[in-house]
Amino acid sequence: MKKLVAAVLAGTMVLSLAACSKGGDSGKASGGGDGETYTIVYLTPSTASQFWTYVGIGIENAMKDMEEEHGVKIDFSTVGPAEESQTEEYVTAFEQCIAKQPDAIVTATLAIDATVPKAQEATNAGIVLNFVNCGLGVGDDGAHEEAYNEFYYCSNDTIGEMAAEAFLDIAAEKGISTEEGVLGMNTNVENEALNHRVDSFRAYIEENAPGLEMTDTYYNGNVVETAQSNAENIISTYGDKLMGMYSGNNITGDGVCLAVQGSGIADKIVNVAVDSDDTEIAALEGGYLDAIIVQDAYAQGYKCMENAILTLINGENPESEKQVNCPPVVITKDNMNEEEMQDLLDPTRLQK
User: What's 147's DSSP letter?
Assistant: First the structure.
């Protein structure tokens, strides 16, 4: 099976799926599949992260739907390090996955340089390799696309720009001046892809609120306590000059929200974060987080797994493009109780 898939994937892709939306309507595959058993591994960057758990819910729901729709059986497993910062352990787990020769691997990487040769090795071995959310480039650039089958992602440039636009809109709503003041910049790690969330945010603010001073980026290694300590440092350093905080991921947002809540400055600043988890949802409800830029982690996971299975069934990738962008949305206290927003904030509601 792997040799057949590897041979056909070298040909031209001729079908196109709808871009990122919650799946289940892919239609019947043309190449059979009834009775086939496929071994597929979800190699997660973190077993402890709620975000990657949400991606996993989409992956497992797609697996169940495809088993029912196409009469196939999926031998499924999840592996990976506990924390995103354990990138060496991630690469080791990738090597172990390749050695077991599954039919497909669905994964995301926060260690691009170290992952590229492993991705090429997997693809050369005939393993269908799909990336979800974090791939071998920023998504928009098409980097290393010869080393994988498909990549479903949310543009980090779009995330940063939307976050900055929401930040300025909320500042106006709260009556907080953007003519001057300090904006605290926070994120988890330096990463070729994730840096775009910060860089695009900075670029938008510089163009649309040039009077604001943005701090250097405070990195926390994806540790909540460090993110909180960094935020407390920013708050104490800049005092009344501080007019806002930006957090590039949910773990960072958790720490910043705890610092904002503890310092009692929520009504004096704008606080915007990326990605959601229980702590951020509570912060949004409590009024010490103003907005979350939320990716559809569930849909990205669903489409990534759906594509992997259809590629195995059909012997070719059904997408016409190697990278599919799944846009984020802005969630605030005003819209967070809408059903669609609740599903984005808590994809466990969709678990089958």
Answer: G
**Residue 343 domain-assigned (yes or no):** no
Structure tokens at 13: 């892709």
* Best CA proximity match to 294, nearest among 303, 302, 284, 304: 284
Do the Cβ atoms of 74 and 309 come closer than 8 Å?
yes
| CA distance readout (Å), 75 to 23, 37, 41, 151 | 20, 7, 8, 22
- Distance CA(218)–CA(237), nearest Å, equals 13
Taking residue 107's Cβ as centre, other Cβ atoms within 10 Å add up to: 28
Predicted confidence at residue 140, as pLDDT, reads 72
12: in domain: yes
Rounded distance between C-alpha atoms, residue 142 and residue 171, angstroms: 36
What is the mean predicted confidence (pLDDT) over 180-209?
93
**Pair 110, 44: CB distance under 8 Å:** no
pTM, rounded to two decimals = 0.79
So what's the pLDDT on residue 187? 96
Residues 9 and 147 in one domain: yes
Q: Which domain holds residue 111?
A: 2-154+296-327
Residue 248 lies in a domain: yes
